[in-house]
Amino acid sequence: MKNERAFEGWLRTLIEGRSTRRDVLRRGLLLGMGASAVGPLLAACQREEPAPAPGGATPPPESPAPGAGTPTMTGTPEAGTPPPAERQVLNYGANAADITTLDPHFAAATQDRNIVDMVFNALIRYKPGDSSEFEPDLAEEIPEPEETADGKQVWTFTLRRGVMWHAGPQNESYELTADDVVYSLQKSANKDRSAYSADYAGMTFEKVDDYTVRITVDPPLSPTLFLPKVANYNGGFIVSQRAVEAMGDEAIKTHPIGTGPFRFKSYASKDRVELQANDDYFRGSPRLAGVQVRFMSDPTSRELALKSGEMDVVGGVADSTWVQKINEEPNLQADVFGVGEVAFLNLNMAREPLNDIRVRQAILYAIDREAHLAVFGGPPVAESVFSVVPAQFMPGGLTQEEAEQAGVAYGRDLDRARQLLAEAGLGDGFSLTLVTSEMDAYRKNYEVLQEELREIGITVELDVVDHSTMHRLIREDVNPIVIYIAFRPNADVYLTQFFHSDSIVVTGPRPNTNFSHYNQIDDLIEQARVETDPERQEELWKQANIKILQDAVGFPLHYINQVYGRSKAVDYGHEVKSSLALYPGFTEQTTVQR
Amino acid sequence: MVRYTVRRLLLAIPTLLAVLTIIFVIVRVAPGDPATAALGDYASEEAVQALRQRMGLDRPLWVQYVRFLADLARGDLGRSLITGQPVIDQIRHVLPYTLELTAAAILVGLVIGVPIGIVTAVRRNTAVDYVGRVVSLAGLSVPAFYLGILLIYFFAVRLRLFPALGAAEFSKPGAHLHALVLPALSLGLIEAAYVTRMTRSVVLSVLNEDYVRTARAKGLPERVVLFGHALRSAMIPLVSLIGLFAISLIGGSVLTEEVFARPGLGKLMIGAMKQKDYTMLQSIMVVYAFIIVLINLVTDLLYGVVDPRVRYE
Q: Which end of chain A is more exposed for a tag (fewer CB within 10 A), N or C?
């Protein structure tokens, strides 16, 4: 009542023209009119000192919609391709705020990989929806390697004829040749022009003729390690020499020119990327008119847009209860597929008291895999894994049987854990401080670990920080135990980055993500890397994984699958088991029947 | 009035400088590494390092600050650290969406709030008044983004009357307005609660004025007293308060744009925050600052226009 009288008094002064602007603002804000975020805060900062409206800048005109070229090749549409008028645009709500880069040789974020996958091709490709199998892409077939007299390895690729580049703002459509392939692979190998140059160390590329490319590898690699380098992943994507030279490396980040089933149409920052069908695609005209990628970082908005029918496919929520909820909708379907990110423990063997193997083993015996699975609602989103290298997705990982046979499956055994701690002279327990990201997947796993360790007398204090801060801090070696969640394309990358002594954080010659300071399997990793017999190579990787578990420096908690929601009107055109592009895969065979 | 306007514009310079400095510092002391944030967990160390270099984050802070001010003085808002595109282009693309949403929400707020405010004032302490006050209190208590989700659920998902995504191209005016309805209601209904409360209080206050009593004593019909005398005076403070509503709504649009996946300054800003896009973030905040300063100035000037008793000195 008192406030109401004061308010009315103020109104009276206002009506009588005796109130100042300052007073109006102050009281208005006190009344709660400016409760919402930035505007009022700024208003409060600087009221009464206005300035001219932003102006003076004369921005360049908006970019015209690209892709208006006139392709010179007519594709051979697949039987059953609907005429263009009937084709639909697929609306995809991506779990992202924006693209980072559409230069395939830098693309790493999920949304970037999704778009790059639709626009570009590579010499070979992972079968759509199945990252365990390769098939030819721009190459006519997958070649067998040849050994040269000087011990090098040669892979010779014969290119398809008649593959046309998308027309761009500064290039007409033209036919792909060996020049493009050599140029592109050389770009991938150049550390200034690619984030994946290290993958191409020891490789040279040459044009034999317009449709033949020779790649020389020294030292030789097994197909398991070589083929991903020329597949549709990371540096393997082939870019157009003419387009990149004409536009420059900077411009292709937001205007990619490829040979894929969809070509770039437009980009609106923080809003959308539009792709349109490439009717000259060498596998046939797409059955979609295009794909519209909307950036929707709010999960509720994505879900509601899917339910309202405005989105055909959306990035989901990594939780099995979300999957169940979507599947209960009559017209919707949740898709859960690999590749999965593996969540695993890294125990720092250089730090007391974890430098005692009994302490590390005690920690592993305290872990309850089921409790960690429950962080994501259990299967199908999260599944158990028995080595850091996930056997489900790549050779070199351990299955449950193999881990049990080798005696490294562990399993929760609190008595044994306490006994090991007692033997190590730590029967009264000890304390650890661990930094965790605020992201649910990390924070919840750390919280479960905190509870597990409490039961064997180890007190864990958690310090929750911003996600990227956590990444910085763990690379500064602050955590005696690091939970890391990652996917890497093959066992060699997993083992090298996380368990080779070169990669030890801070002190290693090439510090990367070896948080455990482990240095006992360098020889196995290096042997496996140059082993050209795939079976022998896989065996070496398995040995390395067993040793990691025996020494209790790394321990897999689970892997987390990709989760998407889609309308049942969408048919991807392939079964989705796993995808390195981290989305279900939209190809020339994908349809929407609304 | 011209001298007053010029003086106000000049006075804005040091304030803006202080705001810009605060913006620059806040954006940089925020925790997190932009390169890591931008590339995500799948990125290799090599990719993160390459992006960090490309972003120029290794340069000294003061160099970045001087460059920021110098560029701003030239009207150059810089390029996005992430995509390399000119920030001004991106802001220019989304600004109309935010301004349009704000204007539509003000309209909703006034169209709903003013009549209810008048009715509840005229019928003070009746059932109508109580209902109006409870509803407006409820409106004040609901966050705009939550109301947005409820509106989407009922009107887009269940009834399918409006789209869940709150924007269409300007080139399609019908679809554009259709898509604007829910976001405008989401913001405007809450603003209507404020307007209702303000209008009620202003009208109540005016109704107790001597000249209103005199008009009644003269035997004028209540309709003439209300519309011919009381409301004309009551509208003066409301007009000046529209500026405040606009500032509040521009701020409130941040989450509304995110919920409706609608282009706008707010969505741009949230995206920039998530990606740690320093250039983009500080430029958006600069634009916000300019807009708010401008609204303040216009409101001040308008205040004098609607109320002749105000003199600019």
A: N
Whether residue B149 and residue A304 make contact (CB cut-off 8 A), yes or no, is yes
Q: Does B284 touch chain A (CB under 8 A)?
A: no
Tell me if B126 is assigned to some domain. yes
Half-sphere exposure of A525 (CA within 13 A, CB side): 23
Distance from CA of A398 to the nearest CA of B (A): 22
Check CB contact under 8 Å for B163 and A50: no
Average predicted confidence (pLDDT) for chain B: 83
Quick check: B306 and B237 in contact, CB under 8 A?
Answer: no
Name chain A contacts of B25, Cβ cutoff 8 Å.
Answer: none
- Which CATH number fits the domain A92-282, given the four candidates 3.90.76.10, 3.40.50.300, 3.30.2320.30, 1.10.8.10? 3.90.76.10
CATH number at residue B238: 1.10.3720.10
Residues of A in contact with B291 (CB under 8 A): 53-54
Domain that includes residue B101, residue range: 87-311
Q: Give the best residue of B125, B238, B244 to mutate against chain A (max A CB count within 10 A).
A: B244
pLDDT at A51: 33
pLDDT score for A266:
95
The Cα–Cα gap between B260 and A296 comes to: 9
Q: Which positions 80-109 of B are in contact with A (Cβ < 8 Å)?
A: 80, 82-86, 88-90, 92-94
pLDDT tens, position by position, A116-149: 999 999 999 999 999 989 999 999 999 999 999 8
Judged on CB neighbours under 10 Å (0-12, 13-18, 19+), A464 is middle
Query: Contact at 8 Å (CB) between B189 and B183?
Result: no
Name the stretches of chain A with pLDDT < 50: 1-80
The pLDDT score that the predictor gives to residue A71 is 28
Q: Which of A346, A269, A315 is nearest to A92 (CA)?
A: A315
Contact check, Cβ <8 Å, B8/A48: yes
Contacts of B147 in chain A (CB under 8 A): none
Cα(A475)–Cα(A482) distance, rounded to whole angstroms? Answer: 10
How far apart, in whole angstroms, are the C-alpha atoms of residue B102 and residue B253? 7
* Cβ pair A198:B205 closer than 8 A: no
Q: Do B310 and A17 touch (CB under 8 A)?
A: yes
